[in-house]
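Data deposition worksheet. Section B asks for the primary sequence of the deposited chain exactly as it was used as input, without tags or linkers unless they were present during the calculation. Section C holds the resulting structure in token form. Section D is free text for depositor observations; keep each observation to a single sentence. Incomplete worksheets are returned to the depositor.
Section A, Depositor: J.P.
Section B:
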Amino acid sequence: MGARRKLRVLAAMSGGVDSAVAAARIAEEGHEVVGVHLALSPNPRSHRVGARGCCTLEDARDARRAADVIGIPFYVWDMAERFHRDVVEDFVSEYAAGRTPNPCLRCNEKIKFSAVLDRALALGFDAVATGHHARLIDGVLRRSVDASKDQSYVLGVLTREQLKHAIFPLGGSTKAEVRAEAARRGLAVADKPDSHDICFIADGDTRAFLAERLGTAEGPIVDALTGEVLGTHRGAYGFTIGQRKGLGLERPAPDGRPRYVLSIEPVSNTVKVGPRSRLQVTRIIGERPVWNGPVAEPYEPITCSVQLRAHGEVYGCRAWVEEGRLHIDLDTPAYGVAPGQAAVLYQDDMVIGSATIASAAG
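Section C:
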């Protein structure tokens, strides 16, 4: 058996423990590795601080220190303009249209595996490595062995061509193993907390962030069962399907049970609420489907499973493509399915495709 080919690999280094260990593993295998940190804000202090995001000055310094310990060249690439256009503006426009976007998924699609990968290939690199917890086996995306940290869902939008030039070194390890390895390697980020929040919303207040960009406009909160106006809000964009808390209603439902957001109508600026039972969904239609696994685009129903939000429940289903849209029939009802989120299809632990949820019905 011949020696493994030496690759030129661009390691995307966020400043966290995962991307640092991913870069170290690739370098240790003998590949030519260059570390790159993405500057995603024209003013880094406007993004999260205190090791909470992936866009801060602190993160850039942590990434540089990790590259020094590993012994690889390190650069910072300014992606602020592209990030603002493809992720931040998309986030705002999706909420304005009554949908609920996933900015981390969009960042993977548009920044890390489009803009960055395109530039890397143009510069003669063979692949981009990241610290995502997922596995690539023979070009097929699979779940991480650490189910609690699995990130295959937010990678499910990638194309076969993008996956062909991707490396995910951590998919066979648990997060505890990654942290222990970072400590052994002398990486200062070994105990750095994971980021969970939207990096470009500095204080974590999504509603205030949207209000600053979309303005405020009072509208009704309506009981979907009776048509009664129960209260008012300052912008329909501040709600998401399935939301229970923060509705600001003064009186409970007649049966004493909580109300949930059932629909968001941006044109009339109306939010409709009602019982959880009205959130039940058994049929989903997705737009812009991507087929990135070994399964051909199915024009007849196939049996598989679907995940409808990051770290969400997985549902058995039948799925097929009709007139360019993905149709999904669930075996058991789901609740609170929000248009704008991704529906990622699996067979066992293998990703076979995805689509953006356009609509859902009971």
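Section D:
The longest strand covers residues 280-291.
Residues 46-53 have pLDDT under 50 and may be disordered.
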